[in-house]
Design a protein that fits this description.
By secondary structure, this protein is α+β, with helices and mostly antiparallel strands. The protein folds into 2 domains: 122 residues, Beta Polymerase, domain 2 (2-Layer Sandwich), CATH 3.30.460.80; 319 residues, Orthogonal Bundle (Cytochrome-c3 Hydrogenase, chain B). The chain has 17 helices and 15 strands. The strands form 5 sheets. The chain has a 5-stranded mixed beta sheet, with helices on one face. β6, α3 and β7 form a beta-alpha-beta unit. α15 packs antiparallel against α16. The longest helix is centred in the middle third of the chain and has 29 residues. It is globular. The two termini are 33 Å apart.
């Protein structure tokens, strides 16, 4: 997994420059494979769209964010140029008095939620885009009080208006609306799901999220970077380690330091252990929604075994409190690693039996095959990531496509399934479970010697320099974008989680040829986290 050469980067930059009529305002390399460009405001949208359409670049949309730099706003778009294994950031400035730009979403549908969120939180207008509220619900006063602006009065309590959410549902004889949530049975977080049905056939489905928007990015402003690491670990329970890893890698990039090889391998082990726990949870949920209680219980048992191993390896079932900037706070003991090898071997044997059972139970296969179909083209347009994308034939995995630090220790065989249904998304996870068990066993058996922590040179943590951390979590790629201010405090921190990109996939997969009893099954085949999306 070699990084691109300087010649490769020069060729890439020359190719990209053709899409902007005026000279680039700035171009620099932040990582061995992260290029940052600044362009004129009037050329931003057109240039970005041309780059996205270029087959040679093979650009994957990753995220879009805004920064209030007090004298002006800045807009930052991040692509992965998959064919070249390079991340490309494109930045432009917007006037503070009238922050407007031509919307990207008509040509890049995956950017729609980000444009709506930026409009909600910054008041920046994507001209020609969707201006419906997203993060701030319809009862938030429109046209004022933008929480992510630096001059927002956090002591202010806006006057909330009684404005009900309007779902765009078709009318007609015999059609009814079925409302689910926002409060659900069990312990899952709130989200309002709305169906338009005739009898049991689903005509339209939509979801209102962000009931648990915590303002976690706003909370980070002015905080020491190590305090923000704690916030990163608590973005989500399912992907706590992946979030901490993305954040620490961003800070380590800013410090221009390489952490010890032993720490990199330990991080890779823990990342795959988290993937196993998440995938077993997903497989249990799919089996439960498909009426296969025994298989669901066994998959939940497998997850519990992984969580117990996590406790033994790190001291925390969800792998919190072990990762830090510069490596690990503590090492897994030799005894816990030896025991993990034995447990994983036995788990692999039991999982093979479970797989045979599930794939030879016709009544269950009748439920999952052809339900919740999502085409490869729709997955591309929506920017889906992780098993949700690979289950629709998208051959994307950051462990292979963005080879940096931890990813270099994981030479995975990417698991892709073409059918695009619940069965396809389930099979991707089944095969990834087998891959992760193999990867963890290999990494433990070949663990290098040395130390697992090295202090970073904090004098290199300069202000106003944006860096990224990209990690392939269990749910898909997640992005942490970090810019420090004075005294090594966080000025702007942006989190793009995998569920944030995949929720619209749930919406599209639920519509079509599905009936109401299929809806929970389709939902669980994605099994997305609300907290990760709401932030």
């Amino acid at each position: 997994m070699s990084h691109p050469t300087q010649q490769d980067l020069d060729q890439l930059l020359a190719h990209v420059e053709r899409y902007f009529e005026k000279p680039l305002l700035n171009a620099e390399l932040r990582l061995p494979n992260h290029v940052v460009l600044e362009v004129e405001p009037g050329e931003f949208t057109e240039g970005v769209i041309k780059i996205y359409a270029d087959a040679w670049l093979n650009a994957r949309y990753l995220t879009l964010l805004a920064v209030d730099e007090q004298s002006h706003f800045s807009l930052h778009l991040l692509f992965l140029l998959k064919s070249h294994k390079v991340a490309l950031s494109i930045r432009t400035k917007l006037e503070r008095t009238n922050p407007v730009y031509l919307a990207l979403s008509p040509s890049i549908p995956a950017a729609e939620w980000h444009e709506r969120e930026i409009h909600d939180l910054f008041g920046i207008v994507p001209e020609g885009g969707d201006l419906r509220p997203l993060v701030l619900h319809r009862d938030w006063p429109r046209g004022e009080h933008y929480p992510m602006r630096r001059d927002f009065n956090e002591a202010l309590t806006p006057m909330i208006q009684e404005v009900p959410h309007q779902f765009d549902m078709p009318e007609g004889a015999g059609r009814h609306q079925v409302a689910v949530g926002p409060i659900h049975a069990g312990i899952i977080e709130p989200g309002h799901l709305r169906f338009s049905v005739t009898g049991e056939h689903i005509h339209r489905f939509d979801a209102q999220l962000f009931y648990t928007h915590k303002g976690i990015e706003k909370m980070s402003e002015g905080q020491p970077y190590l305090d923000v690491l704690t916030l990163a670990e608590h973005v989500c329970g399912m992907c706590a380690f992946a979030h901490s890893l993305a954040f620490t890698q961003a800070i380590e990039t800013l410090a221009e330091t390489e952490i010890p090889k032993r720490a990199v391998v330990f991080r890779a082990i823990l990342l795959e252990m988290e993937r196993l726990a998440s995938h077993f949870s997903d497989l249990s949920a799919i089996c439960s929604a498909g009426g296969f209680a025994f298989a669901s219980a066994r998959a939940a048992y497998f997850r519990e075994l992984i969580l117990q191993m996590n406790q033994q390896l790190s001291g925390h079932r969800f792998l919190r409190g072990i990762n830090t900037v510069g490596g690990l706070l503590k090492e897994p003991s030799g005894e816990s690693l030896t025991q993990a090898l034995k447990n994983l071997a036995e788990l692999g044997r039991q999982f093979s039996e479970w797989r045979e059972l599930v794939l030879n139970t016709d009544s269950f296969l009748d439920r999952v095959e052809s339900s919740g179909y999502l085409s490869q083209e729709t997955a591309r347009q929506l920017g889906l990531v992780g098993p949700a994308a690979r289950g629709s034939g998208r051959d994307d995995d950051m462990r292979r496509d963005f080879p940096y630090q931890v990813h270099t220790q994981l030479p995975v065989q990417v698991k892709v399934s073409e059918q695009g249904d619940v069965f396809s998304r389930m099979m991707v996870r089944i095969e990834e479970v087998e891959e992760s068990i193999s990867q963890v066993s290999r990494l433990i058996a070949t663990l290098p010697g040395g130390v697992s922590f090295k202090p970073i040179p904090e004098q290199k943590l300069v202000p106003d320099k944006a860096v990224i951390g990209i990690v392939e979590s269990a749910k898909g790629s997640l992005i942490h974008w970090v810019m420090l201010g004075e005294k090594q405090q966080v000025y702007r921190w942006h989190v793009r989680s995998a569920p944030y990109m995949n929720w619209r996939g749930v919406v599209h997969a639920t519509m079509g040829q599905n009936i109401v009893p299929d809806a929970p099954l389709v939902n669980k085949s994605f099994n997305l986290c609300y907290a990760c999306a709401d932030r």
